[in-house]
Amino acid sequence: MTERLVLLGTKGGPAIRPGGPMPTSSLLEIGGRRIVVDCGLGVTKGLVDAEMLLKTLDLVFITHLHSDHVLELGPLLHTAWTAGLSTPVKVFGPAGTEAYWRNFCQALDFDIDIRIADEGRPDIRDLVVFDEFTEGPVMDEDGLAVSALRVDHPPVTECYALAFAHGGRKIVFSADTAHFPPLADFARGADILVHEAMLETGVDRLVERTGNGERLKAHLMASHTLAADAGRIASDAGVGHLVLNHLIPADDPEFGEAHWREALRTSWNGPLTVGRDRLTLAIEQKADAPEDIDV
């Protein structure tokens, strides 16, 4: 398996607009595992476009239960099932993730039951296994170690950055968060840090288009990270490559890649990728990799 990170959806927030990017989801293929991180609207089509067979779905991680991160979890699992999924899928998420799944299955009871009887499919409700995590070690299996850090994303209290380590490589996802200095220690030495980012100059235009006024602006400023601060986290952590994701704004024609790069000019001077849907980054093998890496 080619080891890679694919940004399937790079937009912050649940709304979509004509010609714009999709909400947050990513595919991480490392150590022979296919890992989906967050399931915003469009994740299923994104995985297909990334040429991943849905029936090979393996691991899913949800950082928090805002809709732009979990809305399509149920449809992804169900569509993978109709595409031939017959092996267990393990879903990791904060408290409440399994309840979402139970409610989804209840809403689809008719379809699920009739496909089992009519098409001879295994019961999808037996194929999906949930592990609701909190801060600390999450998983350690076949050389893949995953750890979580609770970040600052008010009013959501159960929101977690995730670190994935395998074969000496370390990939970290910030999740949604205000500027959170402890994230630098969590991401220390990561090969890739995927960090959310917001342009302060774009917030007023976004609020004007969306129509939620000062309440929305107050939420954005209290709960998300300005691009320059994402650069500070990456610099303090000494990461190899900073990838900006969950962009706010992501679909305003007044703001392009040059604006994001300018915002990080004084805080980050390393390799930088401004996320866009379907962007793929290769994950390099490391020679003489240590057996364990701190996550």
Number of domains: 1
Q: What is the ordering of alpha helices and beta strands? A: EEEHEHHEHHHEEEEEHEHHHEHEE
Instruction: Describe the main β-sheet briefly.
Output: 7 strands, mixed
Strand content: 25-35%
The CATH architecture classification is 4-Layer Sandwich
State the fourth-level CATH superfamily: Ribonuclease Z/Hydroxyacylglutathione hydrolase-like
Computed Rg: 19 Å
What is the CATH class?
Alpha Beta
> How confident is the prediction overall: mean pLDDT?
94
Oligomer, anyone?
single chain
Helix content: 25-40%
- Please count the beta strands (DSSP E, at least 2 residues each): 14
Q: Give the overall shape, derived from the CA principal axes.
A: globular
Query: Low-confidence parts, pLDDT < 50 over ≥5 residues?
Result: 289-295
Biggest sheet: strand arrangement: 6-5-4-3-2-1-14
Count helical runs: 11
Q: Based on helices, strands and strand pairing, what is the structural class?
A: alpha/beta
CATH fold field value:
Metallo-beta-lactamase, Chain A
Description:
The chain is α/β, with parallel strands linked by helices and 295 residues long. The protein has one domain: 4-Layer Sandwich (Metallo-beta-lactamase, Chain A), CATH 3.60.15. The protein is built from eleven helices and 14 strands. The strands form two sheets. A seven-stranded mixed beta sheet has the order 6-5-4-3-2-1-14. Strands 7-8-9-10-11-12-13 form a seven-stranded mixed beta sheet, with helices on one face. β2 (25-30) and β3 form a beta hairpin. The model is unreliable at 289-295 (pLDDT under 50).
